[in-house]
């Protein structure tokens, strides 16, 4: 493989050890990629594994029926169909990943480089690129064109000597050891780029799993996926599937949360280690679902190795395991470079936990030359709300039908969920998401902590059904802009820029006031000049 940085030797040596101890290190988490499947691998061989399986002690969750694999070319097979470059991006969103495992083979196959590229993207800039070649890291699933693997980073994990048409069929597993900088940030995504050429090469993928570094410590403020626990206790029988090595997991239908939630039954717990590079006070938010309102989740927090103090008990909504809601516990204070333990425990009933948000009580503006700092509309610190959400579902626009369950935080502020944000500036960040509907006279307040002098512009992502809808923006109670809604419909979000704002060190307040609503507010960005 070819890499963009000098990591080849580390990659090869790490894999050589892994051949003998495949599960050494932290827990392994299968990634749900069912949304990408477009090809029936069982049509090639009905004996291909499916469901929750383990290959060389590495668990995978494979699709069981329908489309069971991904193939470039929209799943096209045979003939001169859909040649060209095809890309598939797998969202991961897990912190502290050290290794990634893929089940990749090819149809046909070429020994040339540049036909199949796998890239890994970290949340703070970490990056790895690998070039897979036939007869080296990948080979034809039927051993007709490229028939061998010569890389220490690939091993055969399934072999059927009499597959389709009497030919052997194989599944091979690749192991990617990520550079160490990935362990201090989130693995945002894995991107597979395939230069499909029928009768020459096409990629086929069955499964992906990631392995955490041993004893991951999460750097916060950050979102911590529930499956990325440091330790856990479960009395249930785990299959090595979605929940990881210790705790049972379940695939979630929560559009806003992790695709995988952990299941904690009464008495079961999970612990997470967190640290920070600055003194900070955080709000802890839990994204969970319960089937009974009497269900109770107890949480504790404290310095690692010391006594953990209670941060409160959270009762579930009782609206079912398909209705995830956000719940806050007490604020916690972290000191620079100390390691803390956060424990969640099901004290009563069964809890499905998707993730934990450790949210600062103020928004810190980072000191970066390429500053593009996003603050979601929903992450306000105070609000003036005249039209609180009622107990009945209100559907004012296309993105509010699911609001009561997806975006509501129980504070009365009217929120909606946008399934397809069409703002082009949002595609590089995190769509879809929650938006806030602001009526005339309503306001949102955001506290900022600034360390350095900086000239910036505020960029607001807005939509409105009608023109002549306006938000007024204040910085430290002084008007800095009146910005209009696009007036192109509630589903059309556009970016609107303020004039230059000079930030200075200290605590500051940004106010967003609706002078003429309704107007739909997704996020604002602090963009450096």
Strand-helix topology:
Layout: H1 8-18, E1 28-31, E2 51-55, E3 58-62, E4 70-71, E5 84-95, E6 97-108, E7 116-122, E8 127-132, E9 154-160, E10 169-177, E11 186-196, E12 201-212, E13 217-219, E14 222-225, E15 231-233, E16 249-251, E17 260-264, E18 269-275, E19 280-289, E20 296-303, E21 309-315, E22 325-328, E23 332-334, E24 340-348, E25 351-360, E26 363-365, E27 372-376, E28 382-384, H2 403-406, E29 415-418, E30 433-438, E31 443-450, E32 454-464, E33 470-475, E34 478-484, E35 489-503, E36 506-516, E37 519-528
Parallel strand pairs: 13-18, 26-31
Antiparallel strand pairs: 1-12, 2-3, 4-12, 5-11, 6-10, 6-12, 7-8, 7-11, 9-10, 14-25, 15-18, 16-17, 17-25, 18-24, 19-22, 19-23, 19-25, 20-21, 20-24, 27-37, 28-31, 29-30, 30-37, 31-36, 32-35, 32-37, 33-34, 33-36
Commentary on this structure:
The chain is mainly β and 529 residues long. It is built from 2 helices and 37 strands. Strands 14, 16, 17, 19, 22, 23 and 25 form a 7-stranded antiparallel beta sheet that branches. Strands 1, 4, 6, 9, 10 and 12 form a 6-stranded antiparallel beta sheet that branches. Strands 13, 15, 18, 20, 21 and 24 form a 6-stranded mixed beta sheet that branches. Mean pLDDT is 79; it is low at 1-24, 390-403 and 420-432.
Characteristic key phrases:
529 residues, mainly beta, 7-stranded antiparallel beta sheet, 6-stranded antiparallel beta sheet, 37 strands, 3% helix, disordered N terminus
């Amino acid at each position: 493989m070819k890499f963009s940085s000098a990591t080849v030797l580390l990659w090869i040596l790490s894999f050589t050890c892994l051949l003998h101890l495949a599960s050494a290190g932290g827990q392994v988490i299968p990634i749900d990629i069912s949304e990408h499947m477009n090809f029936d691998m069982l049509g090639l061989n009905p004996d291909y594994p499916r469901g929750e399986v383990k290959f060389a002690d590495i668990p995978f969750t494979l699709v069981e029926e329908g489309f069971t694999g991904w193939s470039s070319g929209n799943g096209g097979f045979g003939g001169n169909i859909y040649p060209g470059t095809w890309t598939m991006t797998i969202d991961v969103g897990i912190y502290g990943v050290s290794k990634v495992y893929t089940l990749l083979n090819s149809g046909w196959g070429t020994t040339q480089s540049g036909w199949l590229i796998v890239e890994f993207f970290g949340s703070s800039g970490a990056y790895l690129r690998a070039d897979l070649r036939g007869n080296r890291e990948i080979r034809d699933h039927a051993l007709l064109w490229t028939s061998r693997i010569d890389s220490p980073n690939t091993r055969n994990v399934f072999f059927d000597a009499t597959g389709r048409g009497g030919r052997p069929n194989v599944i091979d597993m690749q192991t990617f050891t990520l550079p160490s900088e990935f362990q201090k940030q989130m693995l945002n995504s894995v991107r597979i780029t395939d230069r499909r050429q029928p009768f020459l090469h096409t990629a086929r993928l069955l499964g992906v799993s990631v392995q955490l570094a041993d004893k991951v410590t999460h750097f916060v403020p950050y979102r911590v996926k529930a499956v990325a626990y440091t330790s856990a206790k479960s009395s249930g029988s785990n299959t090595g599937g979605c929940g990881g090595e210790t705790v049972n997991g379940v695939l979630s239908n929560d559009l806003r949360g992790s695709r995988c939630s952990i299941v904690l039954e009464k008495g079961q717990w999970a612990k997470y280690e967190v640290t920070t590079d600055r003194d900070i006070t955080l709000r802890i938010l839990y994204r969970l679902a319960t089937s009974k309102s009497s269900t109770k989740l107890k949480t504790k927090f404290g310095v690692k190795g010391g006594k953990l103090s209670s941060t409160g008990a959270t009762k579930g909504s009782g609206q079912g395991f398909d209705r995830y809601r956000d719940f806050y516990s007490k604020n916690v204070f972290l000191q620079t470079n100390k390691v803390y333990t956060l424990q969640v425990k099901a004290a009563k009933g069964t809890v499905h936990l998707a993730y934990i948000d450790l949210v600062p009580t103020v928004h810190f503006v980072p000191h970066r030359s390429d500053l593009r700092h996003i603050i979601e509309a929903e992450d306000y610190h105070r609000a003036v709300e005249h039209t609180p959400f009622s107990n009945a579902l209100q559907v004012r626009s296309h993105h509010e039908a699911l609001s009561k369950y997806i975006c509501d935080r129980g504070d009365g502020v009217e929120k909606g969920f946008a399934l397809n944000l069409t703002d082009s500036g949002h595609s590089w960040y995190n769509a879809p998401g929650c938006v806030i509907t602001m009526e005339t006279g309503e306001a949102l307040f955001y506290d900022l902590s600034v360390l350095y002098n900086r000239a910036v512009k505020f960029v607001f992502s807005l939509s409105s059904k009608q023109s002549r809808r306006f938000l007024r923006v204040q910085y430290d109670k002084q008007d800095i802009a009146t910005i209009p809604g696009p007036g192109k419909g509630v589903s059309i979000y556009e970016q609107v820029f303020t004039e230059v704002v000079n930030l200075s060190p200290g605590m500051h307040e940004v106010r967003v006031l609706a002078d003429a609503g309704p107007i739909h507010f997704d996020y604002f960005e602090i963009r450096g000049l």
